[in-house]
């Protein structure tokens, strides 16, 4: 009998699934976190571009240029840390970002005994307007109907 190397076993991941009502109730909190996530992502991009722009200047950098580049790197690192902090806050609730810049996140639920996701859109007047199955392509958007608004109690999917 051959032994599998450590860590080779497939690990089951358990995630909390939400009801539509739970997701609607949490929408203001999710909105707040997604706004912070988006702001931190944009700020990090800004600082990373500044670092790249300073590093790509022609000629030999002077002292002021080196200091400016170092400060931009520190600011980029701080923004990255804030971004990851907000991201962790979402992931603790088993909510995952689809696109942090566009303010989109995925909230898990079960539909027809399959894992599905409410597509939370920060910039939509109704942030929980669409959903998709796990197996659907990323761009798939199905309108939320009374079937997805069901009152089934929240469970956990393995």
Could you describe the 3D structure shown?
There is one protein chain. The longest helix has 36 residues, at 20-55. The two termini are 29 Å apart. This protein is of the alpha+beta class and 158 residues long. Helix 1 (20-55) packs antiparallel against helix 2. 24% of the residues are buried. It is elongated. Mean pLDDT is 88; it is low at 151-156. The protein has one domain (15-157). The protein contains 2 helices and 7 strands, in the order βααββββββ. It has a 5-stranded antiparallel beta sheet. The protein has helices spanning 20-55, 63-92; strands at residues 15-16, 96-99, 104-111, 114-121, 130-133, 142-143, 156-157.
Secondary-structure topology with pairs:
Elements: E1 15-16, H1 20-55, H2 63-92, E2 96-99, E3 104-111, E4 114-121, E5 130-133, E6 142-143, E7 156-157
Antiparallel strand pairs: 1-7, 2-3, 3-4, 4-5, 5-6
Helix pairs in contact: 1-2
* Strand numbers in spatial order across the main sheet: 2-3-4-5-6
Shape: elongated
**Whole-number total of structural domains:** 1
* Share of helix, binned: 40-55%
Please describe the biggest sheet, giving its number of strands, its sense, and whether it closes into a barrel.
5 strands, antiparallel
The SSE order reads: EHHEEEEEE
The N- and C-terminal alpha carbons lie at a distance of 29 Å
Judged by helices, strands and strand pairing, the structural class is: alpha+beta
Would you report the number of β strands? 7
């Amino acid at each position: 009998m051959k032994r599998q190397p450590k860590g080779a076993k497939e690990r089951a991941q358990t995630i909390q699934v939400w009801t539509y009502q739970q997701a609607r109730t949490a929408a203001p909190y999710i909105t707040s976190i997604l706004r912070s996530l988006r702001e931190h992502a944009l700020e990090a991009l800004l600082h990373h571009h500044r670092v790249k722009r300073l590093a790509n200047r022609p000629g030999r950098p002077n002292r002021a240029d080196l200091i400016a580049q170092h400060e931009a790197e520190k600011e980029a690192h701080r923004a990255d840390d804030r971004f990851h902090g907000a991201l962790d806050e979402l992931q603790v609730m088993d909510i995952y970002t689809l696109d942090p810049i566009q303010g989109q996140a995925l909230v898990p639920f079960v539909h027809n005994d399959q894992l599905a996701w409410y597509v939370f859109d920060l910039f939509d007047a109704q942030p929980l307007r669409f959903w998709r199955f796990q197996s659907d392509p990323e761009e798939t958007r199905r309108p939320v109907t009374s079937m997805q608004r069901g009152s089934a109690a929240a469970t956990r999917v393995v």
